[in-house]
Amino acid sequence: FLQRLATLAAKAREEAWQSRQQLQAQQQEVAQLQEQLSSARQDGERWASALQRAQREALEREATRGAEQARQQELIRDMKGRLLELLREKDALWQKTEGIDTPMPSPVPHDAGLCARCRKDFHLLSRRYNCRLCQGKVCHACSVDMGKQGRCCLLCYQQRHPQAT
């Protein structure tokens, strides 16, 4: 009977030792999981902080963009107003000069390298056009596009279409 009791005691000691080993292994695993949880929390806090910073910067950029857009819209309104003022001024000046006889187009200059109206040199960026009415050489600024008929100088266009300007 004692031998059996000794065997059971040895077996119980072995099971207790194994239980302690399992308990230590589980405690180590719990410690590792707690470290991982702590690391994950720190990462979460860093990501949350980065997200808040990014959201704050996005809001600041949006506010800046909104202010810039408002400034540009105000500038556009001012420019449209100024354009309307200039158009009214142009119309008033045109009405004042409506009764004045327009001079005949000047004869074609002999120098083909200059505009017949403004006397600017023709070069790579300033194109030369032939007036379809007086045959003068004129630049883009001094000519009017008449569609299929081609371009003509401003004076010829004004004489042919007095109501146009």
From TrEMBL:
Coiled coil residues, start to end: 9-43
Gene3D superfamilies reported in the protein's UniProt record: Zinc/RING finger domain, C3HC4 (zinc finger)
Ribosomal protein keyword on record = no
CDD domains the record matches: FYVE_RUFY4 (cd15745)
Query: Which domain of life does the UniProt lineage start with?
Result: Eukaryota
Keyword set for this entry? Coiled coil, Metal-binding, Zinc, Zinc-finger
Q: List, for all copies, the residue spans of the domain called FYVE-type.
A: 109-161
User: Has the keyword tRNA processing been applied to this entry?
Assistant: no
Which Gene Ontology terms cover its molecular function? zinc ion binding
| Protein name per its UniProtKB record | RUFY4 protein
Q: Which organism is it from?
A: Centropus bengalensis
Name the lineage.
Answer: Eukaryota, Metazoa, Chordata, Craniata, Vertebrata
